[in-house]
Every structure is written in structure tokens, then in C-alpha cells.
């Protein structure tokens, strides 16, 4: 993690990504979010996008997730991570602390994620 990445940075990139999605359209936004050299891939910060059924529709940190349904995925502590993130997104926005596989270190690490609903069909997030 870069020392400069803060909760404020996470909120800022997610808000920017939601605005981009609304201005550019879903298809263009999903391609941009999954582009490793795209506008929303900033060191450890990247955007992930899901529909409300738990399907990964874009992922800036690990393209292998795209197309997978992770609705029943648990972290090592038994937390149903995607279900909990969906609950926050359904509220419009929110934070969640969980454990996740760091795409750069390849280790399970504590993570705090922030999510926002784009519309009634999909949501975006990022985390540190």
C-alpha cells in the first residue's frame, strides 16, 4: 500500500468512477475500470464493479474475477464479503472491513472497502 492512500483517496476514486460511469455509459466504464493502464488503476487503488447478484462485471486488480459470481465468497473470518458489500451499496454507499487477497503481495491482508451504487443494477468499489 502506498503511504499516501487514505480513506479519502478511496472515496474520491469511487465517486469519480461513479460519475464516469454515469457520463460515459456502462459498457465504456466497465472496459475502463478493467484496463490495467486505465484512468482508474492507480497503484494499489483500482475499481471493482459488480451487479447486485454478486457477478463481477469489471475488476482493475484481477481480471480473472470478471464473469465470476462471488456472492457466497467468505473471507478467512467467515464474513460473506460480497453480500456485506452489496448491503452497503444498497444503502447508496458505505464502508466494510474484511480480509482479501492482495493482488500485488499475493497475501491475505486486512482491507477496508468503500462502495457506491451506480444504479439499481450495479455498484462500484475500491479499497486499501
Question: Secondary structure elements and their pairing?
Answer:
Blueprint lengths: L6 H18 L1 H9 L13 E4 L4 E4 L21 H10 L2 E9 L6 E12 L2 E6 L1
Antiparallel strand pairs: 1-2, 1-5, 3-4, 4-5
Helix pairs in contact: 1-2
CATH class: Alpha Beta
CATH architecture group name: 2-Layer Sandwich
Oligomeric state of this protein: single chain
**Inertia-based shape:** globular
Main β-sheet, in a few words? 5 strands, antiparallel
CATH superfamily: PAS domain
**Range of strand content:** 25-35%
Description:
- With 128 residues, this protein is an alpha+beta fold.
- The chain has a single domain, classed as Beta-Lactamase (2-Layer Sandwich).
- It is built from three helices and five strands, in the order ααββαβββ.
- The chain has a five-stranded antiparallel β-sheet with strand order 2-1-5-4-3, sandwiched between helices.
- Helix 1 (7-24) crosses helix 2.
- The radius of gyration is 13 Å and the shape is globular.
- The N and C termini lie close together (7 Å).
- 30% of the residues are buried.
Brief summary:
The protein has 128 residues and is α+β, with helices and mostly antiparallel strands.
What descriptive keywords fit this protein?
single chain, 128 residues, alpha+beta, Beta-Lactamase, five-stranded antiparallel β-sheet, 3 helices
